[in-house]
Amino acid sequence: MAQKPPTQPDDGHVAVSIDGHETRVPKGTLVLDAAAGLGIHIPIYCAHPKMEPVAVCRMCLVHIERFPKPQPACATVVADGMAVTTDSAEVTKIREGMLEFLLLNHPLDCPVCDRGGECDLQDFTFRYGPSVSRFPITEKVHFNKAVPLSEHIELDQERCILCWRCVRYYDEITGEKEIVLEQRGVQTLVTTFNEQPLRSSFQGNLPEVCPVGALTHRQYRFVSRPWDLQRTAGVCPECSYGCNLNVDSRDFEIRRFASRDNPLVEDMWLCDRGRYSFPKWNSTERVRRPAVRPRAGRARDTAVGEAIAAAANELRAVIDAHSPSAIGVMGSAESTNEELFLLQRLARDVIGTRNIDHQLGSFDGITSEEHALGIAEIEECDALVVLGVEPEEEAPVLTLRLFKAQHKRGRRVHRVARDADPAGVVKAMGATTLTGVIADETNREHAVLVATALARKGAVRRMTVTRGVNGRGAKDLGVLPNVLPGYRAAPPGGKNGREILEAAAAGAIHALLITGPNAALERAGELLDRALQRAESVIVVETRPGKVASAATVLIPGHAIFEKLGTVTNIEGRVQRVRPALPPAAQTPSDTRVLAALAAELGAKGWERSDPMSVNRALREAVPAYAEAGSGGRALWTAERVA
Amino acid sequence: MTLGPETRAEIERARGRYPRAQSAILPALWAVQHEVGHLTPDAMTEVASLLEVTPSEVEAVSTFYSMYFQRPHGRHEVLVCINVSCALRGADGIVDHLTRTLGCESGSTTADGEFTWSSTVECLGACGGAPAMQLDHRFEENLTPDRVDAILARARNGTSAGAKRSVRQRRDR
Amino acid sequence: MIKELVLGLRFTITQMLRKPLTVQYPEEQKPVFPRHRGRHILHRYDNGLERCIGCELCAAACPVGCIYVLAAENDPKNPVSPGERYAERYEINLMRCIYCGYCAEACPTEAITLGPQYDLAEYRRERTVVTKAELLESWPRFAQARGPASPVGAGADSTARADPDPGISPRVAWDAAETVHGAPEAPQPGDLGVPTHVPTVTEPESRDRR
Predict the structure, then answer these.
(1) For residue A105, which of A55, A43, A157 has the smallest C-alpha distance?
(2) Residues of A in Cβ contact (< 8 Å) with C207
(3) Using CA atoms, how far apart are residues A281 and A283, in angstroms rounded to an integer?
(4) Worst-scoring range by mean pLDDT, A293-307, A401-415, B147-161?
(5) Cα–Cα distance between A214 and A599 in angstroms, integer?
(6) What is the pLDDT of residues A525-538, one digit of tens each?
(7) The pLDDT of residue A638
(8) Which residue of A145, A583, A610 is in closest CB contact with C162?
(9) A–C: how many Cβ contacts below 8 A?
């Protein structure tokens, strides 16, 4: 008999004893979570931390005192004085029985299964299961193997243990309900309607949701075993949402992206665009050797030091012949904060030009206010206004956060046209105390109008979906003509990206310093061609061969995002690290050191410490918000900090 | 393919009867099966759009219940009980006889499209008249091979209630 | 005295008349014991299909990490092994192998065993990485190829994986800077122009392999 625990003041907690260990947990905690808090492991298949309990797999059955029958730990809420046993002979027997049952028709093809090595069924059988089965292996019921559900997902119906996780994922997380269980009894199988391929843009999460090897990535099919993979914590480079992921590489190639749960950002769900973008980082289409290709003279490959000296000479020649403002500097939203910080210092302090930007559009009147809404705060807003389809196309995982806000938290989500009439939006809104306005960065002006109109109803916070993995960092760190790092006003007269290219094409700007890869720049098309042809010198630090690299008069190979150390800032200002997962394709120093060496060649002092880490320290000193954000925190801008 | 206006109206009526649209899937599928004879993917898609659920949910329901047909069925449905009482009274012989006379295995349809028969049903609850079978929702009891032949011949000549008619009768009651 | 001489020479003469024990290696090789653990053999089924399914359990069991396996999916019409998966590449670095037999122990299909061959000296280091073509049991339908070893995998030196910024161990340096206040300066990186990636004999020029 358990002793009745001493009565304690009601602080919203209850006392519970698990395997004789006493603990106090908040009311409403599941037995499963209370046990996890004590370090007691309860095997689960159907339970998932991001989904509602269903208790269909019966793997987590535990004995609870005074309950006549074993109870599922994943669906039982703790009560005061509850005494739970997870290590009794009864529970052991239940687990052995459940595992023997789950393995009844499981094909036991672990050696060829992609999940082998990271499979819950394998692990729990090893830990809790019976060592032998009473059922002959020759009498299993067989289903189809290797059924392609879409171009990304493969289904092995034999391996399925019918835990419902994939069905619930589509039901609770994306709301698309594409996968269902059909038939019944032993014939039950996971499938789609009429065997149609999956259409969701979030299918890549299915293999991670699946506790066994039933749903697997087709791109990862037989590619590697989990113990071969080198895992590096990284950030998804496809958009600026900043989804955390694990970069799994083998033989110097990225083999898959796996989710790395950060509840504040992507909440462990990745979009297919990001998840399946990894092959391009293995591409061998790379700039590999530094080259000097003067407009008059012979092009040749050089050592990197020589290329940097040549670049400095060309820049100095332009400064001497014209003025520093005859130089245009283009950063990139795909560089790290450290590189961008150095680049703008190089441009403003060493070269002395005000012409610096990271993309083509105008960011006049940019303030930190347009980035005030955090991703997790979306769930706290009473109402949300999404202007146009671009925000969700640009950052797909935003859709899942909006779905969660709408369906789990009961928030109102209004998807309106890109240029919706502000008065109409206010009218449709109803009463609200906190409204979130989400717009794309190309739609800034209109978002201001809508936000101003909504401000009469209550507080408004804005989120601007930036372009490029570090589009936000480029703005925070002043890689813009009109602001310095930290949104301080820059001296007027700087040209923005388009103006730089136009001036270069017109012959007013004589030298371009471009760090790439810059997708925004490449979209300039014919204007970019003219600018690159007309400029006397084009100094390029670039990873990919292309228009910009081939027009360079001095070309220095850059390091791609998975080959270097640094930080990137996501849409909500979260400063997150990127780490090298691959060896650099080019045998050159990292981009920060190239920029610092260029500055040193131009005669600047104090640029010796130029490894990404030292630059990061300098960056934190210069931008206090980044010092407070640290690594993984949000850079928050207050009014006095901006001023 | 589109469903007839009558069927659509019936699905709409079913939708109004339940607080959740999912609940109306069962009566909606009965209406479809009554009109089409079996449940086609097109019909299920249409049901889904009428009830504002996803087609996959409709298909999940339709495959769970064995009396919704995924494939075209014969004009008559024969279900032979093989449970204990019937087995003791010679159900195996009836099954063998049906396999021979109908010329097809249990679970399939005769070549002329007259009969779809199955011997995998469990107890029909007609143990008092074992061995028993069910022809188009009607029990036929105390079977012998000769009686089976007579019953099938009667059904073939159209003197037995058709499957569709009997479904309608049950609903109208 | 004669007696002693004869007695003394008797041993010499009997030894002179004995057959020599010396084996004319390598022309002549002594048979080994049936369970000798020499160079590995990859076996086939009687129908010629490879036993190996590319599961990499041998590589996982290997205490020295000398086995490299890269799996691929079988073409159902023209399978290499039974089932869905086969080993596209199978390489063993014989210089590293300690001939412990754990690979054979771990193999679920009894595809790999250690065979009788023990003359494994080579003039070139690269040749001591044996490929699947060399390891496989011969089969009449397939000609035995002797292809070059893979540049990555078993032949590559894992310590040659480049540190992108020499002088900094990224994780250590970052963590130190973040968690310890007033931490000493991070290690000073090397000068500009120092190659960051030092290739080894067996490492490829680039990462392009597939």
Answers:
(1) A157
(2) 252-253, 282, 284, 582-583, 585
(3) 5
(4) B147-161
(5) 55
(6) 899 999 999 999 99
(7) 66
(8) A583
(9) 110
How many alpha carbons lie under 13 Å from residue A346 in its C-beta half-sphere?
32
Q: What residue ranges define each of the domains in chain A, with the CATH number in brackets?
A: 13-102 (3.10.20.740), 142-282 (3.30.70.20), 291-359+471-559+587-609 (3.40.50.740), 368-465 (3.40.50)
For the question of an ipTM over 0.90, the answer is: no
Cβ distance A181 to B60 less than 8 Å, yes or no, reads yes
Test A182 with B63 for CB contact under 8 angstroms: yes
* Count of structural domains, chain C: 1
pLDDT computed for residue A6 by the predictor: 55
Structural domain of C131: 27-151
Q: Which of A262-271, B160-169, C101-110, C157-166 has the lowest mean pLDDT?
A: C157-166
Chains A and C touch (3+ CB pairs under 8 A): yes
Residue A424, CA distances (Å) to A384, A391, A453, A618 in order:
14, 20, 10, 47
Query: Tell me: the pLDDT tens digits for C49-90?
Result: 899 999 999 999 999 999 999 999 999 889 999 989 999 999
Q: Is B42 exposed, middle or buried (0-12, 13-18, 19+ CB in 10 A)?
A: middle
The shortest CB-CB distance from A580 to any of C59, C85, C164 is to: C164
Contacts of A183 in chain B (CB under 8 A): 63-64
**CATH number for the domain harbouring residue C118:** 3.30.70.3270
Q: Which of A111, A223, A611 has its CB closest to that of C53?
A: A111
How much is the average pLDDT of A535-558? 93
Closest-CA residue in chain C for A560?
C164
Which residue is it, tokens 């950060």?
A: A262
- Residue-range domains of chain B with CATH: 5-64 (1.10.10), 76-162 (3.40.30.10)
> Is C15 inside a domain boundary?
no
In angstroms, the CA A479 to CA A485 distance is: 8
CB contact under 8 A, C192 and A225: no
The beta-carbon neighbor of B54 closest among A177, A181, A184 is A177
